[in-house]
Each structure stands twice: as structure tokens, then as C-alpha cells.
Amino acid sequence: MYTERIKYLTGKFFAGNCSEAEKQELAVWIKQNPDEVITEALEKEWNGFESETKMPVQVSDRILGNIIPAVPEETSEETAENDTPVRRYLWPKMAAAAVIILTIGLYWWSRGDQNRLAQQPVPKPELADIPPGGNKAMLTLGDGSSIMLDSAKNGSLASQGNTSITKSAAGELVYNISGNADKAAVFNTITTPKGGQYHIVLPDGSRVWLNAASSLKFPTAFSGKERSVEITGEVYFEVAHNAKMPFFVKAGETRIAVLGTHFNVMAYADEKAIKTTLMEGSVKVSRAGKSAMLAPGQQARVTAVSDRIVVASGVDTEKEMAWKNGYFQFEDDNLENIMRQISRWYDVEVTYEGNPGKETFTGKLPRCGNVSRVLKILSLSGVKFRIEGKSIIVTP
């Protein structure tokens, strides 16, 4: 039976911080249960972690090869082969592979085979490693001075009028107002680089998360009849409710009106459309005299070419906010779209040798690993990669 204890142990194992005694306890459980029970339990925990074992790379690769002998393709019989996108499924097979590798790894460990495995030569990694992004951002104050938030110490950072700015122990930026809000607005801007992200609590208590290569411009205190901010890149909002002072987000020429809600705005300059996805509450998206109201689960897509607002329903909101939760999540995404996300998070340039192709990918991968791990999983679909310095060259 999948008890809380086993959930706790498998979670620690995937996270890589199991003690020797806990590994032994988990290994005994694996030996005493049938395969279907083990698979069900371990797959539940794999959804948040990448498996880590003590097996040599060539052993785990051989197991992966047995599990995934060929990449399945879906093609339409009614469409010419060259015009049909090929859908690559990454996640289900990697989950199954992780379960088997973890199970075998623990079984070998419990039999005392560590010495034999340690004696086998470990090959050099096929890909160079580039670490993932992290909490990196620059805060520009009203007087033009800047603070690098990733290197700044926790505690008080600055004061502007009646507003104090602090960096919490959790690494978030917090604005607090003492007394009445200043009548003259002083604007601050927080900017994340490629390979950066950050979390900020605005003066009204609204919480904002910035993805890589993004920015947020906001006043140090909200006053008057509305609260207004400007963004670039990708930003997730949890807006504090205040019916008397509606919240507005400006992304280029697109304006989003909010009362109190959770939503994500993706407004990168290198993407074809500005996408506003609503998780809770309601928002109104406007551009060039046109507008559309969104309900939870809907997404507004605005293109600069036509100023047209297209509303899609039944959107996978988990996918849209996956970046905030530490994942890449793809669903019928083409290779160029995926590599743009990788480029921003790992701060790399991506170039292609030949045509990227029309294949589409579906899967979910953690953003906490080095880029070589992500590329190795993508390469199971047949796409080839090589890393040269801070560049990734893709050979479809």
C-alpha cells in the first residue's frame, strides 16, 4: 500500500537527499512489493523530480534503450507526409524509464554491489553542462541607482518616501508603506536577465513573479483611482483585491484591466503574440479600441500585425504557469518554440544547422537540471544537439 512513509522516502530519493538507512528501507519495500505497486508509487513522485542513481551512465543508457527502442510517430493518412507534423512524446516514456532505473538502482544498492559498479569506467559526458537559471534580478530605483538583488544581503535595501524596500530571507523583494502613500509617484523597475527569475511583493500586497528576460515597472506606492504597472517578457500576477482601485497591466500596446485575480502574461518580443491566461477571477484585455473579457481557463492572444484579440477556451493553465512551478511543459510545441524557452532560461544562443522541421513535442521536464539533461531527453526524439561555449547548435 502506498503510505505517506513511502511517499516521503521516494520524494527524498528523487531529490537526492536520502540517508543510507532510508535507502535501505526503500529498497526493502521494493523487494517486498509486486512491480505494478512499485511502478504506481514511484511514478507519482517522479512527476516532480529527475531520478538520480549510482549506476554508471552506460548502464542507465542501456536500460533506457531497452525501454524506448523507437520514438513513436503520429502521422495523418489524409495529409502528405512532408506537411504533417510529427508528434514526439517525451514524458510518459521518461517516467517509465525513471521508475525502472530507480528500481534497479535501489535493488543493486541493497545487494551491496556498489563496489562492483564503482569500478566500472564512467564515460565522459556527451554534452557540456550549462547550469540552470536562478533568482537573479536588478532593481532600478527612482533616482537611477541600481541594486543587484541576487548579490544583495537580506534585510533593508532602500527607502523611498514612505516606502521601505527589503529583501526577505526567502529571497523575495518586499515593498512596505508606512503612513500615507506619497502623492508624487516614484517608479522602480525590476529586470531579470536571461537565466534569471524573481518574486516581488508590491506596495498593495500583490504578488508578482518574473520569468527570465522580463521586466516590471511600478510605483513605490499606489495612489489615485487606479494601480498601474508595465511589463515586458513573462510575468505571473496574484493581484490583491481592491474594488475601489482597479489594477492595470500594460504590455506594449495591450492593456489588461483587473479587479483581483491570478493570471499570466507572456509578452516576449520574439514571440508571435501576447498571451494573457486567466487562472482565477476576471480580466479585460484591450488593444486598439478592441476588447475581450476572460473567464478562468481562457486565454487572449493578441498579435501586433492585426491588433486582433482571439480568445481560446479550455486552455491548459498548468502548462502556462509551469515556468513558475519549476518546469518546462510542452504540448504540441515545435522545436523552435521549445528552444526559445531553453535559450532564455539557460542564457544561451541557439542556432540551427538545416531546417528545424515540423515535429511537435509533448512532455514535462524540470527546469532545475543542467541543460545537458534537458537536451539528452529531447535527443531521444532523434534531434541532435552540441554545445559550443554558450551556444547550442541544433541538427534536426
Brief overview, please?
The protein has 396 residues and is α+β, with helices and mostly antiparallel strands. The protein has helices at residues 4-15, 20-32, 35-46, 57-67, 91-110, 114-119, 317-320, 335-346, 371-379; strands spanning 87-89, 134-135, 138-140, 146-148, 155-160, 163-167, 173-177, 187-191, 196-201, 207-210, 215-219, 227-238, 247-251, 254-258, 262-267, 274-280, 283-287, 290-294, 299-302, 309-312, 327-334, 349-352, 360-366, 384-388, 391-395.
Q: Can you tell me about this structure?
A:
The protein has 396 residues and is of the alpha+beta class. It folds into 3 domains: 1-48, no CATH class; 134-316, Jelly Rolls (Sandwich), CATH 2.60.120.1440; 326-395, Phage tail protein beta-alpha-beta fold, CATH 3.55.50. The protein is built from 9 helices and 25 strands. The chain has a 19-stranded mixed beta sheet that branches. Strands 1-23-21 form a 3-stranded mixed beta sheet. Strands 22-25-24 form a 3-stranded mixed beta sheet, with helices on one face. β9 and β10 form a beta hairpin. α4 packs across α5. It is globular, with a radius of gyration of 24 Å. The two termini are 44 Å apart. The relative contact order is 0.11.
